[in-house]
Amino acid sequence: MKSFFSSRKAAVAAAVVAALSLTACQTPAKKAETPVAAAAAKPVAQAVTLRVLGDGLYELAYSSAASALYVASAQSFKEVNGGILYRLDPTTLATKGETHTDLKNFGMAIDEKGDTFYTTNSLDGSVSKVDAHSGKVLQRLALGGGKDKDGDAIGAREMLLHGNELYVGRVADPGFINVIDTKTFKVKTTIKNAGKWVTGLIYSPLTERIYAANGGGEILVINPRSHKIEQRWTPGDGKEYLLLNMAEDPATGRLFVTDDSKAKTTLVFDIHSGKVIKRIEGDALGIKFNARRNEIYISQRESKKVLQLDATSYAVKNSWSFDTSPNSLLVSADGEALYVSLKQAFNEDSSTKGADSVARIALK
Question: What start-end ranges are recorded for coiled-coil regions in this protein (predicted)?
Answer without folding.
Answer: none
